[in-house]
Amino acid sequence: MALEAAVLIHRRNTRVRTTALATTLAAAVLALGACDAGGSDAGTEAGPDKGLTVVAPGKPGEPARTLSAEEAKKAAGDDTPNSADFRYARMMIDHHEQALVLTALVPGRAASASVERLAERISAGQKPEIGAMEGWLKNNGGHGHEEAHEHSAMPGMVTEAQLERLRAARGKAFDKLFLELMITHHQGAVTMATEALADGNDVLVEEMANDVVAQQSVEIDRMRGLMT
């Protein structure tokens, strides 16, 4: 419970920081606009924005940044999706779909009711996330210029040989292998989401990536608990 509360606080603080950054930059742009209007009347030779700076809150774990007037104006309104956003959405859809393949093997093979309930929660959580990412790609024209990517290049992906071993396992042996594979799979998803948060530019992708980090980090701890 303490970990879940900490994750929720982290998610809330991340969104607060994002809102604070947008508010700070928007206010700065308004202030700079006022300087433009006033500076022309005063006839300043150096230009109205000369020397003006804005302190923008950093991302979680990063220090605040000092932006020039021009940088602040650009940052205030630039949330256009970039290649990292599209790459994350496409790859995470495939990543989630493999998780659904794994969870579909649980009924009839698992010995533990706790493992069965966990698989149900994973499936129930990742199906709507796939729909959200597919919707985001459609709304942003991402399906029109898809880039090919190797499944094996994505962190945490289960190999075909591992999948065959899981299909053949039963009882406690199945539970152990399922948990081992799914923990690694979740860790890979967290890695991908963290990279998207660092390299992406779209607010909605940032929110989806934050949700993946929060939810799957909690589930990793639950699975580790089931292995003890």
Report on this model:
This protein is mainly alpha-helical and 228 residues long. The protein folds into 2 domains: 2-77; 83-227, Up-down Bundle (Ferritin), CATH 1.20.1260. It is 71% helix and 4% strand. It is built from 7 helices and 2 strands. The protein has helices at residues 2-42, 69-77, 83-104, 113-139, 160-168, 171-199, 203-227, and strands spanning 53-56, 65-68. The chain has a two-stranded antiparallel sheet. The model is unreliable at 1-20, 23-30 and 37-49 (pLDDT under 50).
- The counted number of beta strands is 2
First-residue to last-residue Cα separation: 18 Å
The main sheet orders its strands as 1-2
Overall tally of structural domains:
2
- The SS-based structural class is mainly alpha
* Radius of gyration over C-alpha positions, nearest whole angstrom: 23 Å
Strand proportion? under 5%
The mean pLDDT is 80
Compact description:
This protein is mostly helical and 228 residues long. It is 71% helix and 4% strand.
Features of the shown structure:
two-stranded antiparallel sheet; elongated; 4% strand; 228 residues; mainly alpha; 71% helix; Ferritin
SSE map:
Layout lengths: L1 H41 L10 E4 L8 E4 H9 L5 H22 L8 H27 L20 H9 L2 H29 L3 H25 L1
Antiparallel strand pairs: 1-2
